[in-house]
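Form 7-S
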Amino acid sequence: MQKRWDKLTLCLRAPGAPLDNDVCERALKKVILNRKNALFYKTENGAKVGDIFMSLIHTAELAGGDPAQWLPWNCRATLDQTKSPSPTST
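Output:
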């Protein structure tokens, strides 16, 4: 360990370097979850669709959105809620 001390403590000398790698670990969890889910795909097309949904869900989470609102079975209700009311004529 003493031979590698400079390399092991490099992050302590770099200003602003994070002391953890939580961001990377959270991203890897998504990859592992997708790999576990892929065991249950029955067709190649099903795998492609599953991969697209996993990508969309992760993108929505990173953007601070609620992915559950935009899943196919909730999409119509979400769109109806987000529509602005039409102006009333007087």
